[in-house]
Amino acid sequence: MSAYFAALSEALKTAGIFQPGLLLDLDRLDGNIALVKARLDPGLSVRLVDKSLACLPLLSHIGKKLGTDRFMTFHPPISAVVLKAFPDADLLYGKPMPVGAARAALVKGDADWSRVCWLIDTLERLAEYGALADEIGTELRIAFEIDVGLHRGGFASPETLSKALSALPAHKRLRCEGVMAYEAHAPHIPGLFGGPAKALAQASDRAAAFVACLGADQRRILNIGGSKTALLHHGGIANEVSMGSAFVLPSDFDTAGLDGFQPAAFIAAPILKVVAPMLPGPPAVTRLLQALGRFPRKGCYLYGGKWMAEPVFPEGMRTNDLLGLSSNQQFMGLPADSVARPGDYAFLRPTQSEAVLQQFGPIVVFSGGRIIDRWPVLPMM
May I ask the CATH class of domain 25-244? Predict the structure, then answer.
């Protein structure tokens, strides 16, 4: 591990980068893409999640490697950028948009919104989108959100979906493309309740029951899964899975379904100071807490901090509850024998890629032992 981060550090120094940044290891990314290609059921396509890979060159790189132009989208400003950047892109919303947000995007007309499939989770929203389509005089593509066990919303049973499908002919400008299911709960079901494999099988069976309600011309999008489960689906009713975070593997995605994947994104932050830390107040208090193992005898302050990330280098670097977190100069405890020095780099592994990839400006791209590019990120808002 030390040799790997030493190589990253040397590349950053050579490139003249001395401020916090998000570093992407392109070689590890390509290794993860290769695993997806090898393990993905041949009957499934991949829909790339733009919120988790919020960088056009990153989306383009993965899309070309996988041969996909399908995207799952979540935020109209990002949707518009993706539509412009990828002329053949097909977008599916991963959450239902307030009808006002859809109206604003469609009226603005800054992109080809006919390539977007909007998500419908209730009869009320179906009526709202039907009225919107009539109001602006355009056909809208829709998919129905179905609940296969996560219980986060959507149609709760095939019977309720059937009611929505029965109401659909009244909305002449709405065209049903299919359904979207999400079973993020499955990897976390304890063995006492059947375990992940049983939960995944149940979710797949429930999805099939919903799909049975659809007409033959309403099954273009049969979407299920996310990064943690996409590669575990085999032989089910779905024709596509959604994946995003898996490609860079933040720590929240260390699950059995992604065994063998490598972390490909790190926050790199210069170490500003290495100190023999002292708490404010009488020195005796610090000495007592150090003797009790509650406070380190060595520490450092980073350039920036308070990120959604876990420290990975220098080895043994830890946050400390007594001094807390800081977005300006974050204190980190170090082992007593640490050889870290001011000017070295600390590395933290994001817990998620969503939002974190966009916090530092252009992503620093590392490959073959050097920094080869800077990739701009998509706007957060």
Answer: alpha beta
